[in-house]
Amino acid sequence: MTNYESAAASSVQRLKERHVKELEDMIEKAYSNTQGMKYTLSRELMQVRAQERLMFQVRQLERAEEYKRQGDQMETQERKQIEVNTVQARIEKEEARLRVVHQAQLKSLMKRI
User: In the prediction, which pLDDT does 1 show?
Assistant: First the structure.
């Protein structure tokens, strides 16, 4: 009986380790798949870009460069924020799905033991 119990405990432990690995892989994959994400520009950023174009057209190059730097900073911040929010939402959704699957697998294993 002791041999059976140790084999059962070993099976449960291996299943839990596999679940942890699947979860870690999913999180790593979510962060690595951020290339090519689509996002929409904020109204403020679009206004800054319009001001930049206008300043270049009227040959106020110093102000145009200032608007360009400001727009680049805003765009970088917006991209990071959107990326973080999107990835975090994707991780939460996938994690919830994996937890349901993992619980079902564990429950099935426990029935067999």
Answer: 60
